[in-house]
Design a protein that fits this description.
This protein is an all-alpha fold. The chain contains nine helices and two strands, in the order ααααααββααα. Strand 1 and strand 2 form a beta hairpin.
């Protein structure tokens, strides 16, 4: 049934995400906030077992604070201050509850950094929505290509210790699919096709890394899926694991390293 439910719910989620990105502002913040808070619940339930409610509340409060700060003072240090405060709070809480300190605090920081990255990328003038959509298309194409090629070809495993099911065929198939889709996307927007393809391939590699990180975390805590909210996909964290790291890395490259976010074109 995964071959039916996975693409069906994937299409629905992609449509909702696309609408939120294009709408921007309040609707984009609501979409990002809702997804990240559910992911926080799944993360803390995974790493803290029965002590997950308090750290989940701290992370949810932190994420809402980050969203508010990012909206009120874009590209300022205020949102980072809120994120660091929330991370420190969960570190102290984990110490008091005798739950894994690093895992508890890193979940807060990782999700908050991804939320902040998505917000900062979306408001970039003049084409923030185009950049975020390009990133999401690359992630979706990579995940789909990896699933198809991995199942059809199989072959040597990518890294059994982290994820026993992922293969090199899926890795390269996902990267090729992402490159093709983002090349088409760039061409449709009148942007350099080759640079669009390189963008997609790069996002695919980063997305695979984020996926492997979550797979490793699930193996550490002996669970198969982070949740069961999305049929065919597992939990929200399972669905966005690639996007989290992709957003953070892309934000660093665009905002800190100052690469051109328009695939080499100019507004």
């Amino acid at each position: 049934m995964d071959w039916v439910t996975r693409p069906l719910f994937g299409i629905v989620l992609a449509a909702i995400a696309t609408g939120a990105v294009l709408a921007g502002g309040f609707w984009f913040a609501i979409f990002i906030g809702a997804g990240s808070i559910v992911a926080a619940y799944e993360w803390h339930r995974m790493v803290a077992n029965r002590f997950f409610l308090r750290p989940t509340f701290v992370t949810a409060l932190t994420l809402m604070g980050v969203l508010y700060a990012a909206d009120m003072q874009p590209h300022s240090l205020l949102a980072w201050a809120v994120l660091l405060l929330g991370t420190a709070a969960n570190l102290l809480l984990a110490q008091a509850q005798k739950t894994p300190l690093v895992w508890q605090a890193s979940g807060t920081f990782y999700l908050g950094a991804a939320v902040l990255a998505m917000m900062d990328l979306r408001i970039l003038p003049p084409h923030g929505a185009m950049l975020v959509l390009g990133m999401l298309l690359a992630v979706w194409a990579s995940d789909t290509g990896a699933l198809i090629f991995g199942n059809l070809i199989g072959g040597p495993k990518l890294w059994v210790a982290l994820s026993p099911n992922k293969t090199w065929a899926g890795f390269f198939g996902g990267m090729a699919t992402a490159a093709i889709i983002t090349a088409i996307y760039a061409g449709a927007l009148g942007l350099p096709v080759l640079r669009g393809a390189l963008f997609g391939a790069g996002i695919s590699v980063v997305g695979h890394t984020g996926d492997m990180f979550e797979s490793w975390a699930k193996r550490m805590f002996r669970i198969k899926d982070s949740g069961g909210l999305i049929p065919g996909h597992g939990g929200v964290l399972d669905r966005i694991d690639s996007t989290l790291l992709a957003a953070i890395v892309l934000a660093v490259l665009v905002l800190a390293v100052h690469i051109d976010p328009l695939f080499g074109a100019r507004p």
